[in-house]
């Protein structure tokens, strides 16, 4: 057979049949194990989860015991197929929508025990004319019903529809000058080098700009978090948003170090509660801003550096919940004001009734009165 006569790389569905599922025509059958290599994996998928204990996964154990695995779901980006002797050759690109971990385990078993590969079976449902977006929607619906689905994966998959998520993803995965480059987990499991989750990264970005955005003093739930982040970006401006976030983590890197932190170090300043309260500190006080841009001088950084992040009380508060976070912020503010005259204390922002798009203004009062009221608010 000449090269041009070879069959195209297809996915073969054995003992297949078409079925009507809620008004949609789908195909059912047994996946031909030898054509697993032709399945494609979309960028909305979780990574293949490895068992780091050295033991076999529960899926691999089930395969070893010849137990039937749950059916997988596939999406074919087209409708081109050829019936052949009770089987179906799927000739358009076929993507794994649900069942990547099962496919991975089957591939591993087939590689380890090639003599048993022919006996492997797994059922498959195939959706026709899918797109990346329709597959991602199915993937999210199927997996959010399972506790194992990570919010980081859900947020990552929104980057094509959310300018805010796209910006955060780009900064942490493409911008090598960003202190958090390679430090944010957008997958199912935290890996070497990653310090915070994507959801924490997004929430800190919102907190940092809460003085510019209406309704940003409380974080939305996972489903609405991308929308809340997009509102922040719209209010602040994309370039200022990027610049401020980079400046925020640059300050933390200069003061306590981020780039040199090892992945298994549980340091105070890399915990979400601490990061979120530092963002609150900056957002709530005019001293750290030059117009819409975050800007700290050398004296402010030096003062931060002397904050006792290794003190047991601070460590405990950094690892606790919301109430502890409020107390932690109080400690940080007190430290920044320590040994300073009242007239040089941090100036807390004031909100007026006419505030629009989250921008804050001081009332028209003399400086001493403003300072006294700021101290009272603290």
Classify the helix fraction into a percent range: 25-40%
Q: Strand-residue fraction?
A: 5-15%
Main sheet: strand order: 4-5-1-2-7-3-6
Kindly give the count of domains.
2
Query: Could you describe the largest sheet, including whether it forms a barrel?
Result: 7 strands, mixed
Secondary structure: number of strands: 11
Order of helices and strands: EEHEEEEHEHHHEEHHHHEEHHHH
Shape: elongated
Helix/sheet category: alpha+beta
Count of DSSP helices? 13
Uncertain runs with pLDDT below 50, 5 residues or more? Answer: 1-6, 352-378
Mean pLDDT reading: 86
Q: Give the radius of gyration.
A: 27 Å
Distance between the termini: 82 Å
Task: Describe the protein's architecture and organization.
The chain is α+β, with helices and mostly antiparallel strands. It folds into 2 domains: 11-144, no CATH class; 151-377, no CATH class. It contains 13 helices and 11 strands. It has helices at residues 58-64, 100-112, 132-144, 151-156, 163-174, 198-208, 225-236, 238-255, 272-284, 298-305, 312-318, 322-337, 367-377; strands at residues 11-21, 24-31, 72-76, 81-84, 87-90, 94-98, 123-128, 184-185, 196-197, 289-290, 293-294. The strands form 3 sheets. It has a 7-stranded mixed β-sheet with strand order 4-5-1-2-7-3-6. The termini are far apart.
